[in-house]
Structure prediction request, 170 residues.
Amino acid sequence: MLLDGEDLLAAGEARLRELRCTRMSMIFQEPMTALNPVMRCGEQIDEVLATHTRMDAAERRARVAAIIRDVHLPDAERMIASYPHQLSGGQRQRIMIAMALVLNPKLLIADEPTTALDVTTQAQILALIRKCSACTAPACCSSRTISASSRKSPIESRCCGGASWSSSRR
Prediction:
C-alpha cells in the first residue's frame, strides 16, 4: 500500500507512528470505545495537536474550537468541556471525525463510521465525511450497514484512489 509513493507495509513501527494522524488517520467504528472516558473531548483533540505539532496552547485551543465547528457540532466550548458520555452517538462520532481530520491527513480510513447510529444521523455523518474528505483527504470506508446510502456515493468511488469500499453484509 503506497501513500505518496511510500510503501506503508514496509515501514517500521517508528515511521508508522510518525505517519499516524499527520499523513493518515482513522475514524473508528464505535466512538464510545475509541474515546477516553476520563478525558474531556477537547483534551483528546488537543492531545493529537500537542503530540504531532509545535503549536502552543493558545494555537491548539483555537484549532480545536475550529475543527469542532468544521464538523458541525453546536456550542464548541461546551463540546470541548464535555466528556464522551455526555454526548449523543452522533456527537461522539463527530468528535472522532474532528480528531481524525485536525491535522489534514492525506488518507482518511473510516471503519464502519455509522454502525450504531440512527438512519438520519448515518446520512449526516456520511455527508460530513464526504464533505471533509473532498477538502482534505481521500476517504476509504468499510461498512456492513449501508442503509443510509443505497447507491454508490462519492466516498465509495474515491476510496483509496478510486477502489470501491468494502461492503460485507451479514
The first helix runs from residue 13 to 19. The chain has a mean pLDDT of 79. The two ends are 27 Å apart (CA to CA).
